[in-house]
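Action item from last week, closing it out:
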Amino acid sequence: MAASLSGLFLFYGFEACGDVAEEVADPTRRIPRAMILTILVGGVSGFLSYAGYVLAAPDLQAIVAGEDTDPIPSILESSLGTAGSQVFLVVTVVAFISCVLSLQAAGSRLLYAFARDRMLPASGWLSHISARHAVPTNALLVVCVVPMLIAFFVFWRPDTLAPVTAFAVLGIYVAFQAVVLAALRQRAKGWRPAGLWNLGRWGTAVNVVALAYGVFAIILLLQPADADAFLDRWIVLIGLCVVGGTGLIYLFLARPDRHSDGIPERDARAVAEQLRQIRSRAQAAPSEETHR
């Protein structure tokens, strides 16, 4: 059960592809392909990393027994030497920075999209687009400053790193499963995806498996921490309740769901039918022109 957490912390982030879909040519085909490649490349590279660390461990028994609580530095030192391990750390830092930049781009677009549809407080400010750079500067500012504040807090309280990370991943999985559950509900009502890329008859089966995996992941991430105080043991669940409760209060008081004027919503079947009609007309137009 605990070992499954490595997969949970690895197999996410693919939604960042969808967050920048409006800036991609032919997104209907390219975004799903990018999401699949993200999972495959991440899974293979993660597996190779784990395998490499295990094979290079100078004392695997000490790691398994819990005597070496931070084995990565010792593995790098014994395998690459002092200079080599420093070079490896530089490469790792560069990789982390590139990941941060990509997540900032995706997060800012997600924040901008919600603000553009007036779903968030201060939506007018968050949806501002720079005339010079054509990017949502205020949304970018938020996704830069808030993580920095969290990082400073963790630096001040290093013992909070595990619960903060678990809560961050948990929040993403809860958001994922909200979409997966909604899709399964619409499938049960007869919805058939109208996009150019879909799973066909396998869609429902994959939908069910995805929901089961996501619920299992959430249960694992909600497991109490190894601590004596009640707050420390259940801090992740408490954080989820606080954030979820705040969101529900805002939903019922501000009713942001009523602000998406002109955007099809509420009925996926009707939207899918509209897309099919639009595609049919687009395909029929060249044929009629050729006939004339």
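Closing note: The chain is about 75% helix and 0% strand.
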